[in-house]
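Session log. Operator J.P. requested a structure for one protein chain; no other inputs attached. Running the standard single-chain path with token output.
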Amino acid sequence: MQDAEPTQRDQVLTALRRIAEGDRRAYEALAWLLMPGAARVAGRITRLADEIDEVVAGQLWVQICGHDPADDRYVAKKILDRVYRESMAELGVGDLAKRRDEAWAMTVLVDAFDESLPAGPADDEVARREVLADLLQRGIDSGKLAENDRDLLLDLAHAAEQIDAPGRRGRGGLMTPAVTQLVEEAHGMSSRSIRRHAAGAIKAMRQEAERGHLAM
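Structure written below.
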């Protein structure tokens, strides 16, 4: 595989991922082919934990299984990049781990949805953050909001803050093209798919808000 052209590697990996839809043994073949790359990932972060090999191996399997069979370009790079980021997050290190810290993430979403949350005193930031945290959890508990879509919302909120996206465009700035493009690689989706998933997640949050008699 190392001597093959990039397009040839993509063809092999994509074919195996599609075969895996009907024969899970193909996942094992994919893992074997990507093992050298995963070993390099583990080598980069080996200092962070004694069990780093187990963390990376687990993430390699998760990311292989979660990769979109229709995504047939830069397959190895995309999977291994996600293995690296998710391994770092699992160990509580890096930007992704920061985004998934509940207190920090709720602060970002409060900013992103500032005009949609119930009005309150200027110093009532904690209460507003708790409202969002409650809405997200209720959405997940009710089955209306998938955990992956919750993570997508948090990542979009973070990206919108990073580039100071206009708050009055694209659902609080979350779905402007500049924002969605920033999270394409991390979530393995096109901007169009990201907007569709995010719109569904926001709708689920709105439904939970209405059930709880909150304006959103």
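Operator note: The radius of gyration is 19 Å.
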